[in-house]
Amino acid sequence: MNTDSFALRHIGPRPENISEMLQVIGVDSLDQLIYETLPDGIKLEKELDLPEALSEQEYLEHITKLAAKNKVFKTYIGLGYHNSNTPPVIQRNVLENPGWYTAYTPYQAEIAQGRLEALLNFQTMIVDLTGLELANASLLDESTAAAEAMNLLFAVRDRKQKKNKVVKFFISEEVLPQTIAVLETRANPLGIELVIGDHQEFDYSEDFFGALLQYPGASGKIYDYAGFVQKAKDAGIKIAVAADILSLVKLRAPGELGVDVVVGTTQRFGIPLGYGGPHAAFFATKEEYKRNVPGRIIGVTKDRDGNLAMRMALQTREQHIKRDRATSNICTAQVLLAVMAGMYAVYHGPKGLEYIANKVHKSTVALANSLEELGFYQLNETYFDTIRVKADVEKVKQIAEASEINFYYPDANTVAISLNETTSLTDLNNIIAVFAHVAGKESHKVTTLEKSILENISVSRDTPFLTNDVFNRYHSETELMRYIKKLERKDLSLNHSMISLGSCTMKLNAAAEMLPLSYPQWGNIHPFVPINQAQGYQEVLKRLEDQLTEITGFAATSLQPNSGAQGEYAGLMAIKAYHDSKGDTHRNICLIPSSAHGTNPASAVMAGMKVVVTKSTEKGNIDVDDLREKALKHKDNLAALMVTYPSTHGVFESEIKDITKIIHENGGKVYMDGANMNAQVGLTNPGKIGADVCHLNLHKTFAIPHGGGGPGVGPICVAKDLVPFLPSNPIIETGGTSPISAISAAPWGSSLVCLISYAYISMLGPKGLKSATEHAILNANYIKQRLNNHFKTLYSGERGRAAHEMILDLRPFKEKGIEVVDIAKRLIDYGFHSPTVSFPVAGTMMIEPTESESKAELDRFCDALNSIKEEIDAIEDQENNLLKNAPHTMEMLTMDEWNFPYTRKQAAFPLPYVSENKFWPSVKRVDDAYGDRNLMCTCDPIEEYMDSE
Ligand SMILES: *Cc1c(COP(=O)(O)O)cnc(C)c1O
User: Fold this and answer.
1) 765 CB less than 6 Å from ligand 1?
2) Which pLDDT tens digit goes with each residue over 275-316?
3) Which residues fall in a coiled-coil region (predicted)?
4) Closest CA to 110 of 937, 808, 920, 935
5) Could you tell me whether strands 297-302 and 281-285 are parallel, antiparallel, or unpaired per DSSP bridges?
């Protein structure tokens, strides 16, 4: 056995387990199982054309060599991205800690109180700094957050505006270029008309429903927007502001002016630049718009015992319920990064942030004065961290780059310089030296920082922030380390047990894949540096694109979208651009099977398409007759079909090639949702089944950790016809030859975490990838068989096999008063996170073990479910039983009184394995309805909340 092989570490079942597992399933070989699983005619004939697998050591050497090709200059480009110091205590205990990064989205609130609290801290920080009432946790980047703000303002137009079809949205020319590009992409399909200009010359016409301002402006200039906001409001125009989070420490909160939405990024709160991401964006608004907020909102509620508990609030707004009428298509957000940014605020507290903001600002004042002394004209009257000087760009650039310094050059005679938390006095003097050289003068060394220019003026902040206890308690490393640990212990992550989330593919996130994220040569690269300074990144990204292109059987890949849902949107926009290029601008019908994930219809609507739902057959497959009928009916306007393969029902439909053919014959393109790619890699591919574009969830199939609900990467891979339309970026050249405008702020989206998928593919190689898929199918079918006596699998393929996941029908247990959530909560007592609940069929669970789980873990899980079935059979009291009272907390178990019709041992240690590794839920069952009725989304003192009842 080659113990250097990464496949041996990634794949759970040991070679010696395989025959036993096959025997349980009732097949002779893995090949036989795959034959029985995959329909005829879609199997790949050849191995993937990818380099042979690297061992973990070889990969780490390889990636270290590539890292050396990135040149880490001192970068003062700004434009929404700034170097910052990641506090080592946060780097080690959150970013590098599988307890945090392998967690799932906190749907099972009872075993997610840790990250829910961390996210509540994040929301509180945003509410305090923006001066608004409500914040979410979190969005993908500042630019898409600004697009969501525009979307919200469009949706909440008053009756008169809707009647008069008011569709104009004003964007200040001081908004960041990448944000303007994303807004251009997003406005068009919704019928929003953008007008870009100088806000000081705006005419406050009633033709506008909203406006977006940048604070401070992209130039670095700070405007007092009070007058603008007042006049706009008088004209019925609603305002969104994109704000720099650190400057808000010094500046008047936009919420105080009465603006409607404030967005921005929290990257500079301790998150590495990572060549563009991932970083958490924020979105704050007024209480009255709470039902229109995109993304996740964490809210406070109580548990069965009346104890304070948190969970995701107002979920009925979201795409998984509202589908084509959802407030947004956001599913995966940036949870891990939001946790880190929130912890940065916890660590520094209000005084620490004030110190940092002052240091950055006063350094900038010192720089401005020194450059003026050298004879350079500085353009910004008021500024926080960014100045602009008139100078010969060519000269400055040459000398600066020779000194390994990057500035931003908006035109041939202007140099923009943004300072940040990491800028030292030495750095300051090095910048000054560049300009002294250009001017041919001697420079004075700066030895002390100058006075702030932001005190006692109209824009200065005079309201307190982060007054809450949590921001004033954990300022020593010991205290913060323990606080982080305290929260971590409340959360069940992959380092405790299997998280078998159907459709979400929670597989191993290997340490070797994660290690390089901490290298400064990957972390400290600004997304807008000249390409020749990012050669390491360019190589990795290009190779990853090629790997994904090969895996999908397509022609090209764009890594720009920051989540699966963004990928869907990007892919549909590429389809739309293709139709437009053929003069078929009217093609706008998108067929979507009823079983599709909620993001599909939500994305189609964002792309300006009309959703037509097609039926499923009794067996859970696409009803091909219905599909054909609808494709024919809409043939003149058919734009696309969105199809998940294998289906969300966990089945490889044998008719898939007929389905794609029908769509093509009627002029449409086929969008394949790639969330289930884990069942395909190396065995078949979207190109083979006849699709034209798919997104891949790199945070599912390709090993990027779920992070508790993000980050994600949702690249799109496209067939030849769609290559010209891949998305661009306004600052760095990327994308197709007739590209759609930007989908995300950064040219290659969340580049830093692309390293993980690159590692995954490089270390598995063509054989390992295929083997991983086969073992994913093996594990799923093993579970299916082991649960067979007690649970009915809803759908199977033609030869009786599941693909990589299966749906268990739990509706029969209603007879005993048991709902699917009762089983989900009871699994917690057994130490397991529930599988996916009620998607895609209500009253069911969808189980996806992935290839990474060992036979021993699968057995524990099956033992748990089978044991729960026996508990259900034994139920006598439908209200008071092991399932209805689950999960059982330690507090409950150790009460002096015990009035339940079962023993304490049955409650907490129902099977022998549980006592070896008990996971205690920190709260009892959480009351969702109560929390939605009494929405509360900041961490104000508990008493205040309970008093307000
Ligand atoms: C996860 C998933 C998505 C959405 O991906 P995000 O990255 O969460 O936006 C879309 N479709 C299916 C079937 C999924 O499982």
Assistant:
1) no
2) 999 999 999 999 999 999 999 999 999 999 999 999 999 987
3) 858-885
4) 920
5) unpaired
Give the torsion sign (CA, 674, 677, 678, 681).
Answer: negative
CA-closest residue to ligand 1 atom 2: 675
Classify 949 as helix, strand or coil: coil
Residue nearest to atom 6 of ligand 1 (CA): 564
CA of 178 to the centre of ligand 1 (A): 25
Asked if residue 673 has its Cβ within 6 Å of ligand 1, the reply is yes
777 C-alpha to ligand 1 centroid (Å) = 20
Token digits of residue 446: 């700066």
Distance from the alpha carbon of residue 194 to the mean position of ligand 1, in angstroms = 30
Contacts of 394 (CB under 8 A, 6+ apart): 412
Distances in whole angstroms, Cα of residue 161 to Cα of each of 165, 236, 700: 6, 9, 42
937 closest CA partner among 108, 264, 137: 137
Instruction: Indicate if ligand 1 lies below 6 Å from the C-beta of 644.
Output: yes
What is the 675 CA–ligand 1 centroid distance (Å)?
Answer: 6
Q: What three-state secondary structure class fits 581?
A: helix
Q: 478-481: long-range contacts (C-beta < 8 A, 24 or more apart)?
A: 480/87, 480/89, 480/90, 480/93, 480/343, 480/346, 480/347, 481/89, 481/93
List 640's β-bridge partners, or say none: 590, 669
388-414 per-position pLDDT tens digit: 999 999 999 999 999 999 999 999 999
Number of the ligand 1 atom closest to the C-alpha atom of 648: 13
> Nearest CA to 887 among 854, 921, 841, 932?
921
| CA separation for the pair 354, 10 (Å, rounded) | 45
- One-letter amino acid identity for 385? D
Burial of 414 (0-12, 13-18, 19+ CB in 10 A): middle
pLDDT in tens, 133-185: 999 999 999 999 999 999 999 999 999 999 999 999 999 999 999 999 999 99
Instruction: Give yes or no for a contact between 114 and 489, defined as CB atoms under 8 angstroms apart.
Output: yes
- Token pair in block for residue 498: 């299997």
Contact 453, 362 (CB under 8 A): no
Helical (H) or strand (E) element with 610: strand 610-614
Distance of CA 470 to the CA centre of its chain: 26
Which residues, 6+ apart, have CB-to-CB distance to 802 below 8 Å? 37, 650, 651, 777, 780, 781, 784, 793, 796
Nearest CA to ligand 1 atom 5: 564
Q: How many CB atoms lie within 10 A of CB 909?
A: 17
Other C-beta atoms closer than 10 Å to the C-beta of 456 total 7
Query: What is the number of the ligand 1 atom nearest to the C-alpha of 332?
Result: 8
Other residues' Cβ atoms within 10 Å of the Cβ of residue 235: 13
Q: How confident is the model at residue 59 (pLDDT cuts 50, 70, 90)?
A: very high
Q: Is 697 in the pocket of ligand 1 (CB under 6 A)?
A: yes
Which protein residue has the closest C-alpha to ligand 1 atom 4?
564
Question: Is the CB of 503 within 6 Å of ligand 1?
Answer: yes
pLDDT tens for each residue of 482-537: 999 999 999 999 999 999 999 999 999 999 999 999 999 999 999 999 999 999 99
Starting at the edge strand found earlier in the chain, the sheet holding 386-390 runs 386-390, 414-418, 408-411
Buried b (16+ CB within 10 A) or exposed e, 440-455: eeebeebeebbebbbe
- Counted residue by residue, the chain has a size of 949
CA distances from 827 to 414, 716, 769, 831 (A): 62, 36, 31, 6
pTM beyond cutoff 0.70: yes
Nearest atom of ligand 1 to the alpha carbon of 563: 7
Tokens 């033609």, residue located: 798
Does residue 562's CB lie within 6 angstroms of at least one atom of ligand 1?
Answer: no
Candidate from 562, 697, 757, 805 with most ligand 1 atoms within 8 A of CB, to mutate: 697
- Please name the helix (run of DSSP H) or strand (run of DSSP E) that holds residue 602, with its range, or none: helix 599-606
Q: Which pLDDT band holds residue 586 (cuts at 50, 70, 90)? A: very high
